Amino acid sequence: MTYFTSWEEFAKAAERLYLADSLKCRFVTKYRHCDGKLSVKVTDDKVCLQYRTEHAQDVKKLEKLTGHLMRHMASKEK
Predict the structure, then answer these.
(1) Nearest residue to 27 (alpha-carbon basis) of 6, 10, 9, 5
(2) How many Cα atoms occupy the beta-carbon half-sphere of 78 within 13 Å?
(3) CA 60 to CA 50: how far, in whole Å?
(4) d(CA 3, CA 51)
(5) Total-model pTM
(6) Region 12-18: what's the mean pLDDT?
(7) Looking at the predicted structure, is the pLDDT value of residue 78 above 70?
(8) Distance of CA 28 to the CA centre of its chain
(9) Mean pLDDT of the chain
(10) Residue 48 and residue 1 in contact, taking contact as beta carbons nearer than 8 Å
(11) Which of 72, 76, 77 shows the shortest CA–CA distance to 14?
């Protein structure tokens, strides 16, 4: 469980992980106000991708990634 240092790498890996098996993929965010840190974790129980930041501008990037994944979820045909 290593942390990515680049948001772009993390976002691409998270999207690939979701597209590989959407039913097993989980997306978790955690914010610790006392530390001012935002943690994002995407896992399918085999692969765990994590990203941690202290920068406020990364919240917009997180919103963009969440919206992108939600579009994939909404357009999924069964």
Answers:
(1) 10
(2) 4
(3) 17
(4) 5
(5) 0.86
(6) 94
(7) no
(8) 7
(9) 91
(10) yes
(11) 72
- Three-state DSSP at 7 gives helix
Q: Which residue has the tokens 């990634």?
A: 65
Q: Which helix (H) or strand (E) holds 61?
A: helix 58-74
- Left (φ > 0), alpha (ψ -120 to 50) or beta: where does 32 sit? beta
**Residue 77 phi, psi dihedral angles, 5° rounding:** -95, 145
Integer Cα distance of 8 and 2 in angstroms: 16
With 0-12 / 13-18 / 19 or more C-beta atoms within 10 angstroms meaning exposed / middle / buried, residue 47 is middle
Confidence of residue 72 (pLDDT cuts 50, 70, 90): confident
Alpha carbon distance, N-terminus to C-terminus of the chain: 32
69 pLDDT more than 70 = yes
Chain position carrying tokens 């992980």: 17
d(CA 59, CA 16): 21
Amino acid at 20: A
